[in-house]
Inverse folding.
C-alpha cells in the first residue's frame, strides 16, 4: 500500500438486513494534517462487530446511522503518529472509535484509552475491548449470577459469548453454550471451559435441550434472539434473568418477525428480560479493565482471534460474521504492530 | 339458604381457556365441625380474580391446579363463628384463601389477617386485598416510578389497574389508562384520576396511541398482554420498565399464540420486562396495608366494587370478568355483614 494515502471503507448503500461487501467501497483520501490539540492515529487493527448491522441500518437505533458516503464506524487500535496534545506521544498505542480507515485525526476525548502493550494490543478490541466489557457488565449487572446458577449462552463461541461463559464459571455457575457447529461445540468445551455445549443446528436441538437444563435456566445470555431463544425460554427457572444482548439470528427486524408470545412465561416464572447496551456503561469501563486484564494474564479468561490481513477484507467481514464462519474475535490488520 | 349446609362451588371440568359456568357445580356438604387449634369461618364475601383462569388450568403454573371435584380456590372474607385458637374469637372478621363456599375450617396460618372493621370489610378483598397489594408492590418494586414518568396501564379501570393509576399519580407520574369502553374511559378519568384514557376498541387505537406518549412510555403496567401490549411497546422510552402482571386479553396459551418478537425493541430501548406474582411478596404485605389504608381513608385511593348476591352467581363470574362486563372489583356476597 501507499504510505501517502488514507484508504477508507465508506458506506455506499444501505442494506435492508445484513451488510454485504457491495454496500461498501474503498476510497483513497489524503492523510489528515495534524491540528492544534489533535492526535493523528495510524490504525493497526480494525474491529468487526455484529452491532455494525444496526449502525448502517436506516431504522431508529441507539446510535445515528452511518451516513451514506461516510467512513464505516468501528473501533480500532493504532499507534499515535503525531500528537499536538500533551497527554499523547508518538508511539503510544490507543483505541477508540476511529473507523475503518488507515489514519484518523481525533481529539483526546475520542480516544477511549491508552493500551497497555504488555498484553497483545489486539486484545484491546476483543477480550479487553467492547466484547469483554459487554460480557462483564451484562452478565454481572443484568444477569446477576449466583453460585450454582445455570447459565445458558447463545453464540457461545463468539467474542462476547466466550467471555460470558468464562466469567460465569469464575462466579461459580454451571455453563451451557449454544453454538452453530460441532467444531464450535469443541471450542466451547475445550478452549472456553463450558460445562456443556450444543449446536442449534442439530435436528434434535429443541428435543434434547431440556436434558441440559434439568434444574432450569437461571440466566439466559441471549446473543441471537429468534428460534434459539424460543427453545431456551421454554426451560427458564423461576426468577430467571434473560439478558438481551444481541439479535444475531434474526435477519431483518423491519417489520419484527412473529414468534411465540413470551408474556405468560415471563409472568409465571417471574422472569426478567432486559436489554443491554455497552455504551450505557462507558463511565464504568475503568472498573472492568483491570479485572479483565488480570483474568487474561492468569489464564482464567481465554480468547480466540481470527485476523484477516488488509483493509480490502473489511467490506465482506460483517456478512461473514453473520454466516458464523469465524472461530474467534474477528479483526482486520491493516498495518504492522511495529 | 339453609343454615345447616355448606354450599361449595366445585370444579367439575377443566376449561381449555376461560372457565365458564358449566365448568362448576354447586354442591351441599355438612358444615365442618370445629377441631382443636382450628377456626370455623362463615364466609361473607368471595373474591373473583382474573388469576382464577390459571388456577383451574391443567398447564404448569405458579400454583397447583384446583383438582377436579375440589372447592374453587379463592380469597374470601368472613366472620369467625367458632374458634379453638387463642388468637381468634367469634365475631372477628378475617380474610384468607377460604375458597368459594359458605364455611371454611382453617388453621391460624391459613388466615391472612384480621380485618379492621373501621373500613368496609369488602375492601379486604380488593383495594386492601390482593388487588391493592399487587398494584403497590408491582408498581413500586418492579416498575420503580420516578417523578414525571409516563405510566401506561392496561385494564386501567379494573381492580388492579385503577390502583396502579392512582398510586402512580401519588408518586408524581403522568398516567394513561387503556380500557375496553368509553364508559370505562370516563371512569378512569373521573373516578380514578388518570391524566388520559383510551379504549383499545377504538378503530384508530394503534394509530392515535402515540399521541398519548409523545415522551415515550417509561412504565407499562401490563394486565392484558396481546395486541394491546404490542401497541404500547412500540412507544416505550429508553430504560422502560414493563411490568407483566396479567395476560387477560389472550384466551389460550396452549400453545402460546404468535406475536411480533420483542427482543430488538427490548435491546434498543434497554428496556426491562419482568413478571410479577403477588404471592412472592407475602412476607411484605404488612408494609403495604397501613399505607394503602391511609390512602383509602384520605381519599387518595378510590375504588369501585361490583357485588353480586348469592353463591349461585359464582360459577359464571370469571367468564363475566373476561368479557370486561364489570365496572369495579368483582365480589360475591353470600351472607350478611352482621
Amino acid at each position: 500500500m501507499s504510505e501517502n494515502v488514507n484508504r477508507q471503507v465508506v458506506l455506499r448503500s444501505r442494506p435492508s438486513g445484513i451488510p454485504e461487501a457491495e454496500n461498501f467501497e474503498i476510497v483513497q483520501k489524503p492523510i489528515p494534517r495534524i491540528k492544534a490539540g489533535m492526535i493523528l492515529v495510524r490504525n493497526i487493527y480494525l474491529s468487526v462487530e455484529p452491532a455494525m448491522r444496526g449502525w448502517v441500518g436506516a431504522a431508529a437505533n441507539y446510535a445515528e446511522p452511518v451516513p451514506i458516503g461516510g467512513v464505516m464506524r468501528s473501533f480500532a487500535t493504532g499507534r499515535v503518529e503525531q500528537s499536538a496534545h500533551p497527554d499523547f506521544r508518538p508511539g503510544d498505542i490507543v483505541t477508540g472509535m476511529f473507523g475503518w480507515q488507515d489514519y484518523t485525526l481525533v481529539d483526546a476525548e475520542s480516544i477511549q484509552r491508552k493500551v497497555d502493550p504488555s498484553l497483545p494490543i489486539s486484545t484491546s478490541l476483543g477480550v479487553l475491548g467492547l466484547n469483554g466489557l459487554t460480557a462483564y457488565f451484562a452478565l454481572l449487572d443484568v444477569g446477576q449470577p449466583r453460585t450454582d446458577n445455570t447459565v445458558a449462552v447463545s453464540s457461545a463461541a463468539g467474542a462476547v459469548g466466550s467471555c460470558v461463559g468464562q466469567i460465569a464459571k469464575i462466579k461459580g455457575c454451571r455453563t451451557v453454550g449454544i453454538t452453530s457447529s460441532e467444531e464450535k461445540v469443541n471450542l466451547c468445551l475445550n478452549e472456553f471451559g463450558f460445562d456443556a455445549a450444543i449446536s442449534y443446528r442439530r435436528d434434535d436441538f429443541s428435543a434434547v435441550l431440556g436434558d441440559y437444563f434439568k434444574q432450569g435456566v437461571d440466566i439466559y445470555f441471549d446473543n441471537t434472539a429468534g428460534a434459539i431463544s424460543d427453545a431456551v425460554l421454554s426451560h427458564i427457572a423461576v426468577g430467571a434473568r434473560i439478558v438481551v444482548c444481541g439479535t444475531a439470528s434474526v435477519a431483518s427486524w423491519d417489520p419484527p418477525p412473529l414468534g411465540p408470545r413470551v408474556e405468560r412465561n415471563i409472568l409465571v416464572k417471574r422472569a426478567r428480560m432486559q436489554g443491554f447496551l455497552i455504551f450505557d456503561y462507558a463511565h464504568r469501563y475503568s472498573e472492568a479493565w483491570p479485572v479483565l486484564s488480570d483474568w487474561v494474564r492468569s489464564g482464567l479468561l481465554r480468547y480466540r482471534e481470527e485476523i484477516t490481513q488488509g483493509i480490502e477484507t473489511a467490506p465482506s467481514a460483517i456478512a461473514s460474521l453473520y454466516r458464523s464462519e469465524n472461530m474467534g474475535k474477528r479483526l482486520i490488520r491493516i498495518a504492522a504492530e511495529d
Summary: Residues 224 and 248 of chain B are 4 Å apart (CA to CA). The mean pLDDT of chain B is 95.
